[in-house]
Give the backbone structure.
Amino acid sequence: MHELSIAYSVVEIATQSATEAGAVRVREVHVRLGALSGVVRGALEFSYDIACAGTMLEGSSLVVRELPARVYCAVCDCEVELPSVQYFCCPVCDTPSGDLRQGRELDVEAIEVDLPGDEHGNAGAGDSQGNSE
Ligand SMILES: [Zn+2]
């Protein structure tokens, strides 16, 4: 399963960020998931629990923020949200557009951790870990 290797990468990134922040445990990992990332959300959530076992992320939750696909429409001169990833046309004027601006994201957005002696510590994983492509 493709999602399992992605889950392991997410755990690895979160572990690294948490370690750098001096955290003892990770409570939540927030990821951004684009509609065209090719990742099935349910499969990723399932794989996440497996990937977390035996790490400092064990028992943590994966918070997925789904991003719709967006293209730039030259006719409307703006970014528009695609109602379907099978249909690359502007929903306003129906002009075909392949100028993708959002939808391939798959990255760790933030992590929530426990710091030593602090029940409610927070540590960001940085703005972005970069796109997968
Ligand atoms: Zn348009």
In short: The chain is about 25% helix and 30% strand. Helices lie at 2-20, 41-52.
